[in-house]
């Protein structure tokens, strides 16, 4: 049996887990740190420390390969985790970059403050293409989503601000640089004044994994905070059976 670890600062990584479960049969162990979300405004050292705590917990389940289902963690902690645990770690940012480079035209990266500060997408897209990359930090979105606010006036007010540059310039490609954002993809599209190409880095992440598939899939979800709001979002995202457990670390 192959054990795949998937982790995120909260609920966002479930959009990655959804794609993995659709494509490959394995035992999946997901950890979402909703209690301490969002990570995007934390110090670099805190993000690395929290990521290390999560992986240390998941190691109890004999994980064979890890998906870092969080752009913020991916940009800061990938090298540290690979060096410490000596196992394969696949950052969601690499999948997003590969996908982005298949498209023509300029880009908007909508992401957390930490991911924007890393300039990962901007540096690598501009180095490997003729595109110009705009960056917008959207600090409110993760908190709203974690609180169950995935539609309505409060969300629209934030999106109006964060999408202002896209609507002004009709930027053809928008990268969802945080795995929480696909949860509100429909709302993002609805608040655009034009039709853009929305890039979800989670879609192709399963291609990173190479293993002999199991006959069945099991999905185990550990959350550092469990309440009715995040249960509803989990059910909205995942179309499969799962076991949900509360685990503070």
TrEMBL record:
Listed PROSITE patterns: ASP_GLU_RACEMASE_2 (PS00924)
UniProt xrefs under Gene3D superfamilies: 3.40.50.1860
Keyword Lyase appears in the UniProt entry: no
Top-tier EC class: isomerase
EC code: 5.1.1.3
Protein name (record): Glutamate racemase
Function, in words: Provides the (R)-glutamate required for cell wall biosynthesis.
HAMAP family: Glu_racemase
Positions of substrate binding: 8-9, 39-40, 71-72, 179-180
Pathway entry: Cell wall biogenesis; peptidoglycan biosynthesis
Gene name of the encoded protein: murI
Molecular functions per Gene Ontology: glutamate racemase activity
Active-site residues annotated for this sequence: 70, 178
Record-stated family: Belongs to the aspartate/glutamate racemases family.
Annotated keywords: Cell shape, Cell wall biogenesis/degradation, Isomerase, Peptidoglycan synthesis
Any coiled-coil regions, as ranges: none
Catalytic activity as recorded in UniProt: L-glutamate = D-glutamate
């Amino acid at each position: 049996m192959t054990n795949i670890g998937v982790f995120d600062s909260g609920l966002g990584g479930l959009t990655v887990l959804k794609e993995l479960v659709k494509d490959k049969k394995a035992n999946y162990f997901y950890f979402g740190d909703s209690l301490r979300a969002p990570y995007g405004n934390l110090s670099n050292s805190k993000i690395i420390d929290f990521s290390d705590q999560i992986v240390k917990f998941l190691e109890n389940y004999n994980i064979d390969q890890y998906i870092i289902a969080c752009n913020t963690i991916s940009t800061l902690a990938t090298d540290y985790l690979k060096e410490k645990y000596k196992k394969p770690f696949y950052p969601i940012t690499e999948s997003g970059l590969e996908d982005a480079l298949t498209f023509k035209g300029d880009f908007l990266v909508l992401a957390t403050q930490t991911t924007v500060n890393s300039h990962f997408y901007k540096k690598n897209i501009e180095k490997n293409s003729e595109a110009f990359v705009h960056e917008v930090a959207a600090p409110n979105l993760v908190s709203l989503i974690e609180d169950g606010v995935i539609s309505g006036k409060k969300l629209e007010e934030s999106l109006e601000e964060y999408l202002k540059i896209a609507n002004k310039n009709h930027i053809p490609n928008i990268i969802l640089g945080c795995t929480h954002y696909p949860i509100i993809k429909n709302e993002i599209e609805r608040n655009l004044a034009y039709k853009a190409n929305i890039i979800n880095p989670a879609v192709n992440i399963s291609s990173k994994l190479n293993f002999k598939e199991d006959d069945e899939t099991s999905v185990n979800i550990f959350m550092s905070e469990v309440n009715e709001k995040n249960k509803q979002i989990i059910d909205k995202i995942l179309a499969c059976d799962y076991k949900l457990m509360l685990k503070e670390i």
